[in-house]
Design a protein that fits this description.
homohexamer, alpha/beta, 314 residues, five-stranded parallel β-sheet, 9 helices
Chain lengths: 314, 314, 314, 314, 314, 314
């Protein structure tokens, strides 16, 4: 522990001044400073939250949003939420494009605005498909959890549905090539649910993650239909090649392919571009780094070899 | 990746219009739409949060809430917080009752209001018992964690106490038959602490979960006194029978019974209606699917079989 | 389930009154009551959040805070954020000192205020060092994750950077002997990221935790340079001696020493004051309770012993 | 001034206790206590503000509200704002009905809810008429103030339009017999603009109050078309008869009738059920208590009799 | 108009820099800078607003505050609101004492804290008297306005009651010698209601100001019982002597004495230490600078001399 | 009153639908619809409020803003507040330019952004002058009001200083030709203080408005040095010529010129382009429509002709 009891040699004001000087020295800040090329602000987490709230109100009418929704008035509420979400999202996508923009020529910005509008249009066109997928996810959760009383409860309470709503939105944006924004959306879901699905992961219909905390689905994962995961499951990369500069080579396929009807129990770890065959079941806490044939049941060798031992402490 | 660079064939306005039409088509929304039978709004997460804040201020006077609490003025603060919490909770319970209500007859609603009031009365009557249990939980955390300096720090900072405050409230509501509300309360705690305890789980006094992230305690779990869990522990179901329609049969006992004085280390998975006998210790990352006798120490077979191997990459 | 259908024997008002009486009975509240000796309020989570927001804006100029930051105006923004953070933090440290204060003599309080000012001065003097460390952490994340596109994305989106910003601040306060405040800061990061690093843990430069949910780093852990952890890793204590009163003896070294360049994969559990030697790699889900030599690769024995079995249910 | 320097005879805690006792004595509070007969809360100023915000967004599309409004998407925004405003207002009207309700029979409440719904329906049906009137008010302000640049500026900035939007809404509710709510709406406008128009006042199209602060329009006032008032104008009552109990007899016609095309300059006071004839002009600071013929110009007698005098002080 | 079309000679960044330099030059700021002697922050308008909200909830139980108040639970709500208001107000009074404090000796501050506590205790002891006065003010408004339907409406809606609640609180604090705080409270009421009553003004029971906007009651005014004012009334000073330095001599009696049962109609101006005798009536827009005998009726000379003239424009 | 008791002929849903149809009919909305030419949002009152808050913190260091300001740290706080205010204001000015923009050519917008930046630069360059003027206004208030205890109290509490801070900012923006924004700023001050100063009014140093509610200063008014007004004073236009279309001709000089050292007492009305000569005093409630010579004292003729009359009611 530092010698806290000794008197300060300098006044707090003097320390403050010196530290401010130090922090404003180029050498100190250059690696942690965001250089704003075009006077474009950072993407806003608050506004992306509003976008997600409005999209949730649109996707699940009556469950979220500021209002009861009768079928007669649904058009108004869906329409206004979607129109506002569209405008807000287009602005954020524009900021996302600028975030990675290296050109210093300010006159290109109108191009970015047009690109953002185009991308948002394509995104919105995919919402019906997203809703169709989410409806199958709801059904999967209801059928996959004996504790679920109704599908209404699933939609309103289950972190799996929350995480998948965020993921299916983020994934479509990722597919369209929108930078950063999908990652921010994914991390919001991660922070709330403990479920970390990279926006790049491709996930089929009827997906369910029970409990979910600690489950990780990596960038190049491909998941089929009616797959069920539990908490603490990792679908990760085994290792990754680096380039000459020592940086990892980006975006290579390096995560598992999980085929239809697979179940992976809690704490299982599946690493690398392996294939878990259709209908396979992977037991809890298992460590898998090679292909699993269709229909197989994989359990921990040690699971049948538990030891009952005497002794003080573990 | 989608062909993002091609021009949009339709204007954004046209896309918007078509998507809104699509989303308002009955076939599209019928499985994800909340049909509000009685013009009763959804339970409000914000108000349930306020209820929990006021209950925390009531249960731990001086730690939470808007005010210092002297013993002379405690009655005022406890009284006003509890009176407000009572009214707010009664309203939410009424909404919870309506959430699952299938009758279309609006005249029943006064009955729901009366039932909600009755249930809230019963709930409040159990608060003294909840405080007694939480006081033992505080003591258990203080004694179970060498890093804990005082019980004050435990109450103010430990996620275990936060999670148990939410759980003991949710569990009592669950016992009283209140629908949905307990689940919402449990998921709030889950989101904040990463600890997922189903409101149905029955937990004895002196319970402590250290760190806690990723720990799951299932619906029909029964936990005795002075039990200690660590992070990433699963007390889950092994499998569940389905009915003729392919839906799981709800509410059957299917989670472990954990007797007094048991310790379960991080990452252990205990599945099914097995019994972990009094004083047993379950080691980290162990996978248990059968009974463990009282006093036994269960460790991973592999734990004594770690391999030191050479080679590139894992 | 309780007999919920029977009528209440007492009116809700009467129940309320009795419960309030009960809750204000000294015997009921004495173990869960914060006795405020000096009319000093509890530390405020909201204000500590503001302090952390301002420190993040100071440490990563341009990424956070209310404003774009040009290099010409950086001094103003860094200066005002740091000046305000200084004053707010000094007040919270004073509250922290009072939190554990047992003296009843109110005249000591000016001393506490002076001590708080002194401690805050020392803390601020360490910010340049914290930024230097965080810059190496950013680089480590960028190089350790093929999904990371730029270091900007790492700073803005990665939970590892968020958790380490909180930790490095909390750790310096802990080193200075500030009570409670470091713990509150650590728990805030824990709640948001699922990463639980005790403020006491000493962590070298270039640290990276990928995904992170469920990772736990204990109080007396010592971590070298360029260490990488994954989600669900535990660096914990094996057991702890108790004193005569049955309380654990506080603050003894009981967590691992992890040397430079070590990698620990997801779900691994390392317990006790063991040393993981320089450059060692610990595989996923492994359970380690003894030293690991430098350069070794530890994998689960069972990992090579996966069983493919037939049968219904797992 | 009280003798502030003498020491308190009692401790603050003792004073507090005694004052609380005193304030809870029936004799002390009975005349200032709201007896809530049916557990119906007070009307909410916050929600009525939201209702007014949404109605403003509906009445003046594109000027207010959360979104840009294109003519293609107007239906969505008008529809959702009006649907939400409808529900919120119906609830507030129900509270307003309960505010004056003296029956103790709780079973009547459904009747109140139905009445509130009926009244809200009638109110909404009048919105088109309100918009027509407000459009004429905008035109009147634009033509009546040389400082007005465009009608857009008038709608967005002029207190007269704000006050009339509130008034025309409040007046329709008043006409429908809704209790209290109109008064609350009127007082909100009064507080913001300094213009105090009683909801009972009947005001024709093309009305404009320039500046407006301090202008008062009484309950039974009747104002024709194209009338213009300035700040500080009073259209008030001269005196009012009392009943046997000494209370004023309520709701008798006692305020002026102001016919079409009248102008009343700043500070003029017109009292009693007098008629200001079509096209008359009432000069500033004039005091009028009898009829003014059509086309007349009334100026202060003293206005032509200003004195230039010597001397110190006024 | 400035020559706006010419190009800027300097970059915005350069202008900013120069202006900041200029604004931080001692000569520029010395007359508009608050020198904070003791590190005591300014009084907080937000907290004083909370104090007033809580006092209103205490004074008018059931009308304001977060909760319904039944007579059985009144003690809890009154008690907790008053306890919190007490602590908050004591802190603000301490800041108020520091606001005018010229001593540079920091060790006196505990004295200020004690003085603040003492003053707050005295203030609270006067609340019962304030409620008694306000109850008479409610009755006066009900009897003085034919538009008032019930006393409940008067309490909930009338700006006169709002202004008097603020004034009677501010006046008691002023009487106790509390600096600045009373003025801030008075200006809050002024901003909301347009009624400007100096905290020094002494006002008897049964006071009513109808409409109120623009009414001014000066510092040394003395008002008897059952007085009624209307909007735009001035009870002001005629002129004031200055000291040798040219500054006005502070706090001399210079405003009117208004005896019991007086009525003053809208726009009347009464200046100087004159006496308006018991039961006198002062007509609208009248200008009074000398005593008015008891029972007299004062009307504008011009009021009977209105001119009907022809001509274009006024 | 409408026939409220009859049953609704249509369901609320049907009414809603019809009214929405009606409100979306072009003929209904065309005169009250803001046509947004360039997808530029309306100016934001909230952001302009933040700009004014930051400018107040800059102009009166230590009185406003989030922080204590020591002279050593003043540069940081002034700098960051001004930098942020600059950016926010530039954006609002750009919106203001678009508000009146009639061109449909979107490519001009970058020009608007540049113009806005240029105008904001010029505005900021005038802040030192604004502070100098405000310092004289503070002195004038202190010397003009015997109730003012210190200049600190004047700055912190007096509506005159608040209104002049807003006005002097709005006036400079008006001088620079910024559209709408000055008006919005002026109306904010009007709403808060009841003082309505048009941004076009030119006001010399040492200006003071005591109490202020209801005082109006028109667009083309010119006020010299050391002028003092009281509440309810009007400096207005007498009449205004109209063009062929019946609209008033905009921006002609039509308000008074008030020379140095003039005092105008409460309720006085001065109309038209008349000159009130240096040192003149205008008495309360006086109506002036012609020049007043320097040094003259104008009082109401009627002021010496008050009538004491007998009789019932006024």
């Amino acid at each position: 522990m530092l010698e806290q009891s000794s008197p300060l040699e300098k006044t707090p004001g003097r320390i403050l001044e010196e530290v401010i000087e130090g922090l404003c020295d180029t050498a100190s800040y250059e690696r942690v400073y965001y250089r704003n090329w075009r006077d474009s602000p950072m993407p806003s987490l608050t506004i992306l939250e509003e976008v997600m709230e409005r999209l949730r109100a649109v996707l699940f009418p009556g469950f979220y949003g500021k209002s009861d929704v009768a079928s007669e008035t649904m058009r108004y509420h869906v329409g206004s939420n979607l129109d506002i979400a569209f405008r807000l999202l287009a602005k954020q996508i524009e900021r996302g494009l600028c975030f990675f923009c290296t050109s210093d020529d300010r006159r290109d910005c109108p191009t970015c605005a047009d690109r953002a509008l185009n991308l948002t249009g394509r995104f919105v066109a995919g919402l019906l498909h997203i809703r169709r997928l989410l409806a199958t996810d709801v059904q999967a959760a209801y059928q996959g959890d004996p504790a679920a009383k109704t599908t209404d409860e699933v939609i309103f309470c289950y972190p799996s549905i929350a995480a998948l709503t965020y993921h299916r939105v983020a994934h479509l944006l990722h597919e369209l090539g929108v930078p950063v924004i999908p990652r921010i959306i994914a991390e919001t879901a991660h922070s709330r649910t403990g479920i970390d699905i990279h926006p790049g992961a491709s996930i089929g219909e009827g997906f369910f993650i029970d409990h979910g905390t600690g489950t990780v689905v990596g960038e190049t994962t491909i998941i089929g239909r009616n797959v069920r995961l539990y908490q603490g499951v990792t679908l990760g990369a085994k290792s990754f090649p680096k380039d000459a500069a020592g940086n990892p080579i980006k975006s290579l396929p390096r995560h598992p392919i999980v085929e239809d009807d697979v179940i992976v129990y809690s704490g299982a770890t599946i690493l690398g571009r392996v294939t878990i065959g259709k209908g396979a079941v992977v037991g809890g806490n298992v460590w898998v780094t090679s292909d699993v044939p269709a229909g197989a049941r994989v359990v921990q060798g040690a699971a049948r070899d538990i030891c009952f031992e005497q002794g003080a402490g573990i």
